[in-house]
Amino acid sequence: MQDFLQHMINGLSLGSIYALIALGYTMVYGILQMINFAHSDVYMVGAFAAFYAAKWLGIENSPGFSTLIILLLVSMITCSLLALAIERLAYRPLRKAPKLNILITAIGVSLLLEYSGQVIFGADPKVFPEVLNDSILAEIGIVQLKLSDVTVLGVSIVAMLVLHWLIQSTKVGKAMRAVSLNANVASLLGINVNRIISFTFIIGSSLAGIGSVLVGMKYPKIEPLMGMMIGLKAFVAAVLGGIGSVPGAVLGGIMMGLSEEMVVGYLSSTYRDALAFGILIVVLIFKPSGLFGKSSVEKV
Amino acid sequence: MTKMTTFLMGTVLALGMTFLGCTKNDNMILVGEFGSLTGGQATFGISTNKGIKMALDEINEKGGVKGKKIKLITEDNQGKTEEAAASVTRLITQNKVIAIIGEVASGRSKAAAPIAQEHGIPMISPSSTNPDVTKIGDYIFRVCFIDPFQGFVMAKFATENLKAKKAAIMRSVGNEYSVGLADVFAADFKKLGGEIVADLSYQDNDVDFKAQLTQLRSKAPDVIFVPGYYTEVGLIAQQAKSLGIKAPLLGGDGWDSPKLHEIGKEAINGHYFSNHYTTESTDPVVVEFIKKFQEKYKETPDGLAALGYDAAKVLAQAMERAPELNSKAIRDEIAKTKDFVGVTGKITINAERNAVKSAVVVQVDGPKRKYVTTISP
Fold first, then answer.
1. Predicted ipTM?
2. How many Å lie between the alpha carbon of A137 and the closest alpha carbon of chain B?
3. Are B170 and B200 contacting, i.e. CB atoms less than 8 angstroms apart?
């Protein structure tokens, strides 16, 4: 029982990170119907931005909440700018082209970032600076609730609540929903579709930036290929929740994190990745629209 | 420019290069090295490369081998198995090296060895400890001990020095080195009267080990054997500490890297691993080696640098003894190596082309390695 509780804590904190990254996939899909494969590499660049920022600012050895906030901001801004550039240079020229072209371009951008990352940052893993002085907040028997786990969960929840408010209660959010329903009609009604799409990219990648700092804090090893696996898992989480659906991505991420943790805890680590991609296959066979997705008839 | 002139210029250039190549080959002995200079195990390749370079520089300063200088050609395989095979093929067929030094990781040595064997090029692995590596053929050697011995050393150390009764294992499945050590440790620990309470697995490049560690915590082992590589071990140590696990972690030479402490921070302190040599040794050969290495690279050599150094020296000596400089003659002489006084101990190559030597157990203390004990075969 105590083990189960510990697995729950571990799984929730892992799952909330998956959820943050899954949101980026799902938002871009919702608005452009494209899978932004470069998303996980934007996340990687965010981690490195935070790493170098900590070095330059000399705060790599002064853990605390101010450090966390500075690094979160640096990472969010870097990710946003990078995603904006990618959208402007690689995706926008292809907006009218067949969907496959833009998908292949996304894979190309992803590879470009991964391998330039190896050239620029070096391929060997770097050690992420200590962001928080970890301490035990509560202890039940041998089950420990750590400050780092609570922070990961807390930051993720705040980020998701802000996102929810943005989408549901602001003018930009309303415009985003309109564009995702029908971009042409939205533009007829005076919505600047290009600006809304850029905005979506900014928000999605800011969330990835947050995720990258949280991951760096939890697992202090960063490398240029770090986005590959976590990106695929987050993508599966987005599909599980129903790609295009914001609450779906959150739920999918949490479910992925929890089930992975349980499988490794009670079965074997060998099944960790098998489980993730097993879920993907099962969802695609039985409920391709995911938990919250709307199955829509292809418009002719 | 017309097509004709381009063609002519190309031909001239190509011919020129062929001649250049010839002159170079005549008064140089080409030795190849392949290693992971980048990637997740980059410090392995970099350390080994530094050791080899230092040995060859020393030899070249003293006039080289048979009056010829040795030239080292290094290929980076980024820590990838398929790259290892490709880079050795390149070294042999394009660079025409006479002998090869490499690799650290057993998996990559095993990928490259069949190619060296097929072309009849002797290959010395400085630090691949998996027994199967040298079984590939009679051109494949090593200057380090093998996994069964490391597993035995840590099992003996756990029962005799730490008085452990219950041990848990965390092995990296898919990593032959790790699985080899874990199997031998489990068998020997049981033989010595201990009990294996948990045998869990992870994979290289994993970053989250909390699920396994939580499961392991409830079994309350006296020691935890983690025969992995430094990146994962550093993270495991941190997460074990954060889950309140106090049992010492034990490991093999895969821990040996300056990055171990950078990643594991203070969580890695106090844990033990078996290694090829210790910087605390008072042996004049070792003291001299460490002094020269620090002068050259401004850092303390790890075990892999020492093994790289020994591998290059063993090869150079064999070349010097060989009646003529061809791969076959060099192979025969490497096989005859006996009581070679190296930094990592006295090296004798046995009939299985493995080195017979003792191992040391060290305790991690920040960037330092405290010498604990020596365990002989």
1. 0.71
2. 12
3. yes
